[in-house]
Hints:
Layout: E1 4-6, E2 23-26, E3 29-35, H1 40-46, H2 53-70, E4 78-85, H3 91-102, E5 108-113, E6 124-131
Parallel strand pairs: 4-5
Antiparallel strand pairs: 1-2, 2-3, 3-6, 4-6
Helix pairs in contact: 2-3
Amino acid sequence: xxxxxxxxxxxxxxxxxxxxxxxxxxxxxxxxxxxxxxxxxxxxxxxxxxxxxxxxxxxxxxxxxxxxxxxxxxxxxxxxxxxxxxxxxxxxxxxxxxxxxxxxxxxxxxxxxxxxxxxxxxxxxxxxxxxxxxxxxxxxxxxxxx
Length: 146
């Protein structure tokens, strides 16, 4: 049986009152809870400068990277994401953030529109899976001919 190791990450600490864990490393697999731009999104909203979908997505992607790095990997170990948007019209901005963050080595992804996230200023939430034994920069293309 593989041992689940709780990821400790100073940039993305587990909250002492939370009923979830930010991430686990299980062998070469990393499983990460859904991440949002909070508290940066709350602080920006309080200043009257709310973060748009692009900026929120970048904050979230950097959190995911920090968690995978704390588990012993890097952003190109991320193999799958699920993106939740409160406004599907933000999909292009989130897509731009993903391209800017990952370059041409993008993980698989699912995009879902939802009615709301946990705080009203949130527009984007992303959860992710990674494999430390996979580097998407070295991916090859499979093709089949019909």
